[in-house]
Design goal:
Order of helices and strands: HHH
Largest sheet: none
Structural class: mainly alpha
Shape: flat
Keywords: Membrane, Transmembrane, Transmembrane helix
Strand content: under 5%
Length: 87
């Protein structure tokens, strides 16, 4: 595996944000058909990744321990946000 960078963690954050935003819209604002929700999630993820790729600060290398801790934090935030939106 290549050296972990902040950019790899940011990709996960972009995908998590897309899932949270689409789920919030689907549950609280407008009940979307599944294909529309999927396309909206892809669009939000694409916009996040293009923003990340334009930023040069994200190329900074981080330790493997920080990389794993940040990924765990992203997954936990995604889980808790998903449950909080559903309730």
């Amino acid at each position: 595996m290549k050296e972990p960078t902040l950019k790899k963690v940011a990709y996960g954050v972009a995908m998590a944000i897309a899932i949270i935003v689409v789920h919030f819209i689907d549950v609280r604002i407008y009940n979307m058909p599944p294909i529309f929700a999927l396309l909206l999630a892809i669009l939000v993820t694409f916009l996040g990744i293009t923003f990340i790729n334009k930023s040069e600060k994200m190329d900074r290398k981080i330790s493997r321990m920080n990389y794993n801790l940040l990924n765990v934090a992203v997954v936990l935030v995604l889980f808790f946000a998903y449950v909080a939106i559903t309730q």
